[in-house]
Amino acid sequence: MTHEQRIEVRFADIDVMGHVNNAVYLSYFEQARMGFFRELVGAEWNWERDGILLARNEIDYLRPVLLNDRLRIVTRTEHIGNTSLTLSYEGYRKGYKTENEEPCVRGKSVLVCFDYHAKSKKNVPDAWKTKLLS
Questions:
Q1: For the segment 118-131, what is each residue's pLDDT rounded down to a tens digit?
Q2: How far apart are CA 115 and CA 44, in angstroms?
Q3: Which domains does the chain have, with CATH numbers?
């Protein structure tokens, strides 16, 4: 499954060097991930029963993103395990003075499926697997 998310670069995201601060990309990935899950399970997601926990993040910074850039994050299913899944992210920036889009960031997240009532990890729901593999 693949999902695209447009991200609005906010003034608060910019650091003293004039580009998006490195830590902000985790928030961008989170926004993209939530859009991904909205598409996967819909608005009626029972996250207490079919929840997720973030177990790992990794980021490769390729090019700086500036305040007026347009940013697009593509999220893909990279791996499905028994109780976890790995999502990959590719970020593309488009400068406000250019029509060309270029890669600016890559990342991955490992998510563990979790039942918040039972307080234990659980298998990736079968309904998710079908969509995740599409």
A1: 999 999 999 999 99
A2: 16
A3: 2-129 (3.10.129.10)
